[in-house]
Amino acid sequence: MEGLFSLSGAVTTVVILLITVFLFCEGLGLFKSSAVEKGYVLCVNSANPVNSLKSYDIKQIFDYEIENWINVAGDYDKEITVFRFEEVFDRYSEDELGADYNLLPEKLGEIISSDAGIIAFIPEKYTPKNVEGVKILKENNISLSDFFAGSEWIPTATPAPQFGVLPLITGTLWVSLFAILIALPLGIGVAVYLSELAGERMRKLLKPLIELLAGIPSVVYGFFGLIVLVPLVQRVFNLSVGETGFTGSVILAIMALPTIISVAEDAMRNTPRAMREASLALGATHWQTIYKVIIPYAASGISAAVVLGIGRAIGETMAVLMVTGNAAVIPATLFEPVRTIPATIAAELGETAAGSSHYQALFLLGCILFIITMLISITAEMISKRQLNKGL
Amino acid sequence: MNKKINQSIAFWIFRLLGLLVVGLLFWILGFIIYNGISVINWEFLTTAPSDGMTSGGIFPAIVGTCCLMAGSVVVAFPIGVMSAIYTNEYAGNGKIVKFIRIMTNNLSGIPSIIFGLFGMTLFVNSMGWGDSIIAGSFTLGLLVLPLVIRTTEEALKAIPDSFRTGSYALGATKLQTIRRVILPMAFPNILTGLILAVGRVSGETAPILFTAAAYFLPKLPSSIFDQVMALPYHLYVISTSGTDLEATRPMAYGTALVLIAIVLLVNLLASTLRRYFVKKVKTN
Question: What is this structure's pTM?
Fold first, then answer.
């Protein structure tokens, strides 16, 4: 029986361990998967000095944003011709391609070798092998810098899906930090009111109400935000869409309030009576005591409240998903649609095939989120420990 | 004099802020209750959605959420209570307990979407349970485990040591003391924690997105390996991705109101229990 108890005691640790293992196992697979869509290859004319292309270059070439090889391959001054596999059916009839398309590789070879500036995106099984004039580009894996320094998140782009995480990270941080900026003065104000000004009866009434605010499900907040705040923000700030980072921040601020209030209030109430009375005895007013003695004393508790609030805001999924508009671009202002890491996972995971690079990228996002929140938990832990030591 | 004016200005600001937060709560609650109350009727609560979610009710979602609530209790309750018994009664105050407490704290800080990802890889894929009640229950159970552990620990801590020593003095073993003295005394508080945990489970969406929830099911689940509809997920889909959002609005208000009602009920139940318990201890 005792063994069973200690075993249960270890469960939380084991779960954290398992989460780490599973998340990283799936997520780190991304760096082993090819930058080009599975089952396809890129071919160029053999006169082209290029041997391999970076994921972002491929995307720009196929979006016609890079139009000359000189921009990616040094001194090879040739217009780029983009050739997608479907185009082969425009050039050759079904008959010419033979039964079961067995002549297809040969024809593709002809096309590629006849154009010095071509880049062709074709299925692996139709690759023209050992044909003169055709060079198959070496497969590149998605690199760390593609992921962490990439500024575009377009997981469905062909031939090279873009998994740049920067817009999502900036989106998450912007929305969460701004939420705390809104919630902090409010929360501390209410905490001061509760711990210093409110009578016992008022406190008994307010505390459960604030607890109730914490109990409302995030999806209900999201629904409220979608129906009330989104049109409100749109009208007040005269925007084309109301689904903005700012809307998300406001909802998150409301959601983070109960955490901030209760932690900050606890910290203030822990101020030793002697300190208060000393301050009052020196002729300070109650208000002077509050902001010269109590708030400084509770500072580390308040910062723990801030850190916990940020942690809650960063991880919040549903409410943010419903009100921020989910545009995966690096936001210039808070008044445009943004997208956060948890919202991306929630919105996209359902549509991906297990084991695909998109799936792995989403798990890697999960890893990033996991690391951020663990760091936040540990920071809060350290801060409140300091508070505890001070109390002794 | 200046000091006094400053003080009264500052205090009025604080009072206003307090009022603002309460106002905010009543705004949100009032908005949903006001718009949702006309939708709620017997039919809404007892029939399945029909006509592309624009009419009918939310019965399967209510049943689904109840299944998930029950399932997660089955997972979290025994583990959570035993874990709390271990840290509070057996482990003393050493490094191990500190470590376990930190880990429990950290676990409660992990975002719910991460639990969703984890549940999907472990329970849905590795265990091969698929999207099902059991996979969702395990995911949600782990999510609320820290909450159950913490409230149980507090319940155990609240029991004076004299009860323990008294029991030992009568010759009871440690296990007997826990079973006969400590657990019965702590039970109401443990129950309170459990109720709060269940309330949390009822509203969580992100963890069940990929582990249990279905967009629409005309039938009720027949085994724990079936997918279910769930209230929070239902609210999410009908308020964001319908063909006719205006027509599904009333359904969404109704669903939101049911969710809020569950939360209110849970809070009420928990605080009543707490008060009852405090009274009982006093009379003892």
Answer: 0.89
